[in-house]
Design goal:
Layout: H1 9-19, E1 30-33, H2 40-52, E2 58-63, H3 69-76, E3 82-86, E4 97-102, H4 114-123, H5 133-143, E5 145-156, H6 166-172, E6 176-182, E7 195-201, E8 208-211, E9 217-220, H7 230-233, H8 245-248, E10 249-254, H9 261-264, E11 265-267, E12 279-283, E13 299-302, H10 319-324, H11 327-334, H12 353-356, E14 360-364, E15 366-367, E16 371-375, E17 381-382, E18 386-391, H13 397-404, H14 407-416, E19 418-419, E20 425-426, H15 429-433, H16 439-447, H17 450-453, E21 460-462
Parallel strand pairs: 1-2, 1-4, 2-3, 4-5, 6-8, 12-17
Antiparallel strand pairs: 5-7, 6-7, 8-9, 10-18, 11-13, 12-13, 14-16, 14-18, 15-20, 16-21, 19-20
Helix pairs in contact: 1-2
Amino acid sequence: MKGFVPTPHETVDAMVELLFRSRLPHSDDTVLDPGCGTGEFIDGIIRWCERQGLALPRITGVESDERHLPVLRAKYGRLSQVRIRHADFLTDDRAKYDFIVGNPPYVAITGLSESEKARYRARYASARGRFDLYILFFEQALRSLAPSGQLVFITPEKYLYVDTAGPLRDLLARYHIEKIHLVREDTFAELVTYPTITVVRNAPPGRTQVRRRDGGQVTVELPLGRDSWLPLLEGSAPQQAAVTLGDVCLRVSCGVATGADNVFVRPADGLDPGLRRFARPTVAGRQLTPETTDIPQRFVMLTPYNRDGRLLPFERLGALGRYLMHDDVRERLLARTCVQRKPWYAFHETPALREILRPKILCKDICERPQFWVDRSGDVVPRHSVYYIVPRDPATIDVIARYLQSPAAHQWLAQNCQRASKGFLRLQSRVLKRLPLPDDVVRAVSDGRASAHLESPPRQMELAFHAVSPR
């Protein structure tokens, strides 16, 4: 049952209350649940009308999964005001409805067939990049909303800030988004989605009331365009900067993905002497802890590549080649999908060693609070759970690292990074690259005087975590 997650009754009731808050429904009004599952929202509308002593409006539930149909027909077969349609809402005719409510399916692009991807991309402006089905449900629901109609959806919060949802934000901002409510992380029990209830009226844009998870509230005017809304929702104006971290760096990227760390990553102690010329110190995110003062170098990565990132011919690998030819080792390498397009002993992704083997700043991909470590030697090869930041001019590494530990940088990261489980931040290269740099940092980097006029920071660049959201 692709993307089906039942919505808790208390959440359904709160959303139905929002649906009818501005206008009571009449018996000839139309209501749509575009992915009705087993009827949680239809039940909620029935409960609400019974409490209010009102007649049911005309309710349509659209469901594409035929396994739900027996339940739906048994529940509503005798209700003349409820109609169940077995159809795909995303390819259905565009009827208009006075009210739309629901919990669209959450299905990432990886869960779709190639034909589905092509069909949706041809039909939806929001089907761009690595889109999710709930984004398309938003667009189709807006098409289906009658003038002055009301839409209430619960979805992941990511549409508020991820690049993929930029076209959807631009579309939504042309309507009146009345309310954005960031609800409890545990709303769907063990499923971590950071759920968000969005209330939209088919009317000219107006001010939006935002309720955050910490209980804070703010009223904002959402801009047209594809920019992230997260800074505004946190109560801050978006920062426009002429120069960003990406502008002053040669590379900001995720670390090396070998596709077989259990083969290529070995303990540094006791390493076969014949393998040492292929070994480079490496670090994973789990090794970078708040207590870490230096970059751990307990492990090495065996790299069948030269310093330019070119794969060495197998006959030049010597001891490394003999190690990789062991039956159990070779079997693990051949099981990787990447061998369909590259030599069997290559990494899953070609390492950018020319940039990696330079002085750089490291950080974990997921963290409770951002922390940064400086690799001055440039010898460390970060693994895929570590991001690396390579300044264009190595002399500027300290000024960049110092800014990354500042409250201003932390506030920006907290307002622009995706959330992982338990409120942790997900640091990603596309977000780090957009980090705006203040004028004094830009001047220092431009002059190449970073180390000369700033105190040298410690090797561990830890950001103190502060409550930076406006109250």
